[in-house]
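Raw record, unedited: CbaC protein
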Amino acid sequence: MERVRAALGGLAVVIALFGGMILLRTLSRFLRALVWFAETVALFAFAALFGYLAYRVLWGGSDDPRRH
């Protein structure tokens, strides 16, 4: 009975270590994808703002409705 209990304990340790490594790998890949997505959105927002500012400077217009 002690051998069976020891074997089950060893199997539980193997499963915990293997499952833990898979969980860590999955979490790190998820976080990497999340950071990549956030970086892409932030870069797009920066480019849109920069493009808008360039448009306003090159067009030379104003948002003031009294100037029309």
